[in-house]
From TrEMBL:
<keyword id="KW-0030">Aminoacyl-tRNA synthetase</keyword>
<keyword id="KW-0436">Ligase</keyword>
<dbReference type="GO" id="GO:0004818">
    <property type="term" value="F:glutamate-tRNA ligase activity"/>
</dbReference>
<dbReference type="InterPro" id="IPR020751">
    <property type="entry name" value="aa-tRNA-synth_I_codon-bd_sub2"/>
</dbReference>
<feature type="short sequence motif" description="'HIGH' region">
    <location>
        <begin position="12"/>
        <end position="22"/>
    </location>
</feature>
<feature type="domain" description="Aminoacyl-tRNA synthetase class I anticodon-binding">
    <location>
        <begin position="322"/>
        <end position="465"/>
    </location>
</feature>
<keyword id="KW-0547">Nucleotide-binding</keyword>
<comment type="subunit">
    <text>Monomer.</text>
</comment>
<dbReference type="InterPro" id="IPR000924">
    <property type="entry name" value="Glu/Gln-tRNA-synth"/>
</dbReference>
<feature type="domain" description="Glutamyl/glutaminyl-tRNA synthetase class Ib catalytic">
    <location>
        <begin position="6"/>
        <end position="307"/>
    </location>
</feature>
<comment type="similarity">
    <text>Belongs to the class-I aminoacyl-tRNA synthetase family. Glutamate--tRNA ligase type 1 subfamily.</text>
</comment>
<dbReference type="InterPro" id="IPR033910">
    <property type="entry name" value="GluRS_core"/>
</dbReference>
<keyword id="KW-0963">Cytoplasm</keyword>
<dbReference type="InterPro" id="IPR008925">
    <property type="entry name" value="aa_tRNA-synth_I_cd-bd_sf"/>
</dbReference>
<dbReference type="InterPro" id="IPR014729">
    <property type="entry name" value="Rossmann-like_a/b/a_fold"/>
</dbReference>
<dbReference type="InterPro" id="IPR045462">
    <property type="entry name" value="aa-tRNA-synth_I_cd-bd"/>
</dbReference>
<dbReference type="Pfam" id="PF00749">
    <property type="entry name" value="tRNA-synt_1c"/>
</dbReference>
């Protein structure tokens, strides 16, 4: 294991949005670095120039920033380091750890076709491995690293345990193509080494890559990092996560109104655990996180659990922070943001909005009573509560409220007395009152709304409905 401070990295390819699986990988790397007092670095693996786009890179930045995963230093572009990658390939050539291969793509494919037809291994063994320089033709060549032919390569993995691969299963991997461009497998190793990465935490679909990448580490005499290959995320049906399971991009979840703290909590629990703890703060996750808590088996994405955890985080969040995050949500989803007056009103009402709200749209729905203006137009469901009888009772209630002390106990007592005078229960008046004050069937309690709105606004809304 390399000595010194822990350095992790997240290395996405900018070919699309930040996938939920990538976000979980980034989170694990970030948590481990922060838990160990180390560094979390970001590298954009943009060597596929045809598919990499600036827009996708910006989407990755936005997704990470929304999740609160701050990286140390500037993001590194892999494509910008191509000269350095090629330099390492030539160093391996000079040291004898790699060799020139003059086999053409057509020759290699012909070999593989014959091997397939004869039922033999298609692993290509270059005939140029041991040919002396004096016998080399004047022709384009690729540079291949010399893989060991005998024995075994053991990947010491902190999640998967020791994984053994027979060396006769490894090919002499090309590290520099005949056109002088480096391959991805080389670029990853050179970048990780140059960036000082000590722990490579990534999806277990990269597990076999580790054996091939170790060829480069060993050829260069570099320290091999600690490997930790984490399980993939599956849908609720146990199959690999895909579009059919719903939103895949982090920004889609942001646009649906899930708080970043809830998403961090939920993603941390996907494939990692700390005892039986389900709900925890980011500070607790940093304190607890270790590679030993990562499971081998695939995790299942469960939207209900995400919603439940999100609701718990909304419930404990600071009111001012919640209002600010609601603004960010509205901006991210393309909706109109709140005015200063609306932000102030929502802040005053937040104590009675947070209960049982799991997303920002649910919070905004409950906050409708302070975001709307008179005259209140009730929706169809709440309008059904306002018949002639209920309007009559509410008109009788109005003068009793004009001189009442404006506290919860007094207000409840006044409404209770009117309900009893009409031989009904307080709950029966709640529906009509809710329709008058909010115009919605989903809202905080009528007494909380009256307290937030204040005497004057409450009476004006009653007068509009009963006058």
């Amino acid at each position: 294991m390399p000595s010194g401070s822990v350095v992790t990295r997240f290395a996405p390819s900018p070919t699309g949005y930040l996938h939920i699986g990538g976000a979980r990988t980034a989170l694990f790397n970030w948590l481990y670095a922060r838990a160990k007092g180390g560094k979390f670095l970001l590298r954009i693996e943009d060597t596929d120039r045809a598919r990499s786009t600036p827009e996708a890179t910006e989407a990755i930045y936005r997704g990470l920033k929304w999740l609160g995963l701050d990286w140390d230093g500037d993001a590194i572009s892999q494509a910008a380091r191509a000269d350095r990658h090629a330099e390492v390939a030539r160093q391996m050539l000079e040291s004898g750890a790699a060799y020139k291969c003059f086999s053409t793509p057509e020759e290699i494919e012909a070999f593989r076709e014959t091997a397939r037809a004869e039922g033999r291994s298609t692993l290509f063994r270059s005939p140029w491995r041991d040919v002396p320089e004096s016998e080399h033709p004047d022709a384009p060549y690729a540079i291949r690293v010399k893989a060991p032919r005998d024995g075994e390569t053991v990947i010491h993995d902190r999640v998967q345990g020791d994984v053994t691969i027979r060396n006769d299963q490894l090919d002499d991997m090309i590290v520099l193509r005949s056109d002088g461009t480096p391959v991805y497998m080389l670029a990853v190793v050179v970048d990780d080494h140059d960036m000082g990465v000590t722990h490579v935490i990534r999806g277990d679909d990269h597990l076999n890559n580790a054996a091939r990448q170790m060829l480069v580490y060993n050829a260069m005499g570099w320290d091999v990092p600690v490997w930790a290959h984490i399980p993939l995320i599956h849908g609720e049906d146990g199959k690999k996560l895909s579009k059919r399971h719903g939103a895949l991009g982090v920004e889609e979840w942001q646009a649906e109104g899930y708080p970043a703290a809830g998403m961090r909590n939920y993603l941390a629990r996907l494939g990692w655990s700390h005892g039986d703890d389900e709900f925890f703060t980011t500070e607790q996750a940093i304190e607890w996180f270790d590679l030993d808590g990562i499971k081998k088996s695939p995790a299942r994405f469960d939207t209900k659990k995400l919603a439940n955890l999100s609701g718990q985080h909304i419930a404990i969040m600071d009111d001012a922070a919640l209002v600010a995050e609601m603004q960010d949500f509205l901006a991210a989803s393309g909706a109109e943001t709140l005015s200063e007056a609306q932000m102030d009103a929502v802040g005053r009402a937040m104590y009675c909005l947070k209960d049982r709200a799991r997303t920002y749209p649910e919070l905004l729905e409950k906050a409708h009573f302070v975001l709307t203006e008179r005259p209140i137009v009730p929706d169809e469901k709440s309008a059904a509560q306002l018949d002639a009888v209920s309007r009559g009772i509410l008109s009788e209630l109005t003068p009793h409220l004009q001189n009442a002390s404006w506290d919860r106990e007094t207000l409840e007592g006044v409404v209770q007395a009117i309900a009893e005078a009409h031989g009904t229960k307080l709950g029966k008046l709640a529906g009509p009152l809710r329709a008058v004050l909010a115009g919605r069937s989903v809202s905080p309690s009528v007494f909380d709304m009256m307290l937030v709105l204040g005497r004057d606004e409450t009476l004006l809304r009653l007068a509009d409905a009963t006058g």
